[in-house]
Amino acid sequence: MRYIDLNVIDQCKPDNWDVNSQRWAQRVQRAADKSAEIKSIGSKWSDFKPNFIREFGDKCWYSEVPRIGTDFDVDHFRPKGDVKVSKQSYATRVVQGARQKHPGYWWLAFEAKNYRYACIEANRPRSNGGKHDYFPLMDEATRVWNRCNIAGHGGEDVKLLDPCSLIDVTLVSYVQHPGAVMSRYSEISHPDEYSRVRESAKRYNLNSKTIKGARSEVIKKVKDSLQFIELYASLPPAQQVTMNGFLATMEQNLVDACNRKSGFSATAVAFVRQKRHEAWLTDLLPRLDLTD
Q1: Helix pair angle (244-258, 209-234), 10° resolution
Q2: For residues 78 and 95, what is the distance between their CA atoms, to the nearest angstrom?
Q3: Which listed residue, of 68, 110, 205, 206, carries a Cα 20 to 30 Å from 263's Cα?
Q4: Going along 166-247, which residue ranges are E strands?
């Protein structure tokens, strides 16, 4: 999971989005059946896809799976309809002795900063995993129930990791069990962080068989490239000359793997960072994007 800057999402708005989205939001606000009105307006958020691909690459923001031969969704991070907190239950509260079901974050249906580009496996509901309308909080008392702007949701103690949170993307480790997404911290030392990563890995299907397999291929390529560059540095100049072409290929492999737009680039970065203090990697570091 690489960090996605919310301010850049604003730069991905389709033509006339601000004017149109305000009109659509007003229609939803006036409607008695808000979900039906949103459906009537249609999935206008799909128009963000080309610009999301241009700015962030054609990959899932949750899993970093590249899009190959399938369609991706524009997920509403805060669900516009039902709000599930578990497989069988929804977000509720008790008001004057009566239990109320959360109406959904309908007021964010056309809010660009609530959008996340997501693969089908991470977003759509399945027997095991799939985010869809799932949005639990660590503390339900912090949940927003009434219409407000996106900034007004900053106090919600969100459980699922958000690629648009610089803190959240640092909680994930890819090196403890290569190929799998794990918590950077232990359950004993950081129980909340551990719980969030574990729940997110399950909900986004980050450790499904196919995703782990694809992630492992990236790890192997990165490791092979690092090993060759280290070997090359130990050779005498006469031997190095015969391998200069292959060295350039291995270096480019690392540059491409760490590129923010590449699939599973956070995994690549995690393994390259382990070697960033090695003298044999010094000359290549300026070409590598090792930021979160």
Answers
A1: 140
A2: 22
A3: 110
A4: 172-173, 182-183
Helix residue ranges per DSSP H, the chain: 6-10, 17-30, 34-41, 49-56, 120-123, 166-169, 191-203, 209-234, 237-242, 244-258, 265-273
Pull the structure tokens for residue 76.
Answer: 């509403």
Question: In this structure, are residues 113 and 13 in contact, taking their beta carbons and an 8 Å threshold?
Answer: no
* Residue with the two structure tokens 């072409």: 245
State pLDDT tens for residues 210-242: 999 999 999 999 999 999 999 999 999 999 999
Number of continuous H segments (helices) and E segments (strands) in the chain: 11, 6
On the CB side of 164, CA atoms within 13 Å amount to 20
CA dist 286 and 207 (Å) reads 32
Evaluate whether 109 touches 147 at the Cβ level (below 8 Å).
Answer: no
Q: What's the rounded Cα separation, in Å, for the pair 39 and 35?
A: 6
**Each residue's pLDDT tens digit, 234-244:** 999 999 999 99
Distance (Å, rounded) from C-alpha 57 to C-alpha 60? 9
List for the chain the helix, strand, coil content (%; round to 5).
Answer: 50, 10, 45
Q: How many CB atoms sit inside 10 A of residue 144's CB?
A: 17
**First CA to last CA distance, the chain:** 8
Question: Mapping DSSP to helix (H, G, I), strand (E, B) and coil, where does residue 65 land?
Answer: coil
Amino acid at 228: F
Vertex 210: Cα angle to 274 and 268 (nearest 5): 20
Q: Pick the closest to residue 28 from 14, 17, 38 (CA basis).
A: 38
Task: With cut-offs at 50, 70 and 90, classify the pLDDT of residue 87.
Answer: confident
